[in-house]
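Hi V.,

You were right to ask for the full record rather than a summary. Here it is.
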Amino acid sequence: MEIEQEVRDFLTSRRARITPQRAGLRHVGGPRRVPGLRREELAMLAGVSVEYYTRMERGRIGGASDGVLDAISRVLELSDDERAHLYDLARNANGAPRRVREQPSTPITASVQQVIDSMSVPAVIISERLDLLAANHLGRTLYAMVLDSAEQPANFSRFVFLDPRAAGFYVDHDDAKDFVVAVLRAASGRDPLDRATSTLVGELSTRSADFRGRWARHEVRRHSSGRKSIMHPLVGRLDLAYDDFTLPGDPHTSITTYTADPGSPTADGLALLAAWEHSAQSAPHADVS
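Predicted structure:
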């Protein structure tokens, strides 16, 4: 990813969604070419010169102070994830010579695997680019489709866009697509020179016009906590809460756990899934996909 182009596209797309009325400005003058704020309006509201903001929006954001980034974030009404993305871009746009970096996946140690195996809820280990690196027994049963997909290595974005079964697996397939694209966008902003992330984005862009269209929107999300709904082939609909726990010493990898509200149909579904998984221990080749 070219930092300068990413900065241009990100700031331009965020500026386009803030109308003068939304920003508290009274419209004066003739018709506007675009619905969003003009550069000079944004600069005025953020308390910077038009020339300075224009340089920023053209990609020359390196060296911008926290105060300026905070002011721009406030005017553009950036979410916490979007603000973090802007800071990542500014940190990476420092003008130093840049080379593509190899960021090998950290091996999942036996002790980490033992930790997730001890959990009574589904748990998986994922990278920031959504590689599915490891799972406990319930996690493997929950995401058997992803692990068994023809699209390998196992990765949630590959599954969502390239495996036709994903449309029936996610209750809201469209939302799942938006989510994985936004997570990949955030990952690319944190380390734009990571070869594995850029290769994955290139693969998906080549193979999926749908992915290309969503990638161009520059939406950003962090995979940290939230809710997701799936239609599991064994137990039906599961409405799950998920939480990420970053592995100590490895900010690029996290344990994700999935839980259900006590007494809910999803809690019953997870209990059935656990019972099925326990009985399947004696039949390792059972088909759960």
